[in-house]
Structure to design on (125 residues):
C-alpha cells in the first residue's frame, strides 16, 4: 500500500492519549481487525490491544520528543500462542491530521519485520 497523503515532516510533539490504531494491511476480508487504544502520561505510553486474532495484548513504552515510541509488547492470540517482543514506532502526520506509525518490531523468537498502523477515529468504527 502506498504512503500517499503523508507529510514529509515529523511532528515535534505528539500526545497519543485516547488515540486508536489499526493495521493498514493483513486483515482478512470481512474479518475484525485488531486495534489498540493508546494512553499517555508524560513520556509513559501504554496500549490495550484486542480484536481479530488477538485475544488480549498490552504494550508499554516511552515516547521521545520527536513522537517516536520505544516499547515492549505481549499478546495472547486466539490460537493460544503467546507473542512478545520490542518495537520502535515512528509517526507521520497524514493530510487529515491522523497519525500513521511505522513499526519496526523484533519478537523474542528472533523474527522481525516492519508494520504500518493508522489512527482510526471512533466514528470510523
Amino acid at each position: 500500500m502506498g504512503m500517499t497523503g503523508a507529510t514529509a515532516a515529523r511532528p515535534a510533539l505528539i500526545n497519543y492519549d485516547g488515540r486508536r490504531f489499526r493495521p493498514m494491511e493483513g486483515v482478512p476480508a470481512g474479518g475484525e481487525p485488531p486495534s489498540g487504544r493508546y494512553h499517555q502520561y508524560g513520556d509513559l505510553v501504554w496500549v490495550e490491544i484486542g480484536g481479530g486474532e488477538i485475544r488480549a495484548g498490552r504494550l508499554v513504552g516511552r515516547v521521545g520528543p520527536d513522537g517516536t515510541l520505544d516499547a515492549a509488547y505481549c499478546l495472547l492470540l486466539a490460537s493460544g500462542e503467546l507473542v512478545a517482543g520490542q518495537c520502535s514506532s515512528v509517526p507521520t502526520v497524514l493530510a487529515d491530521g491522523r497519525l500513521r506509525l511505522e513499526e519496526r518490531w523484533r519478537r523474542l523468537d528472533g523474527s522481525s519485520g516492519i508494520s504500518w498502523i493508522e489512527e482510526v477515529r471512533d466514528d470510523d468504527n
Notes: The longest strand covers residues 82-93. The CA atoms of residues 59 and 73 lie 4 Å apart. The chain has a mean pLDDT of 89.
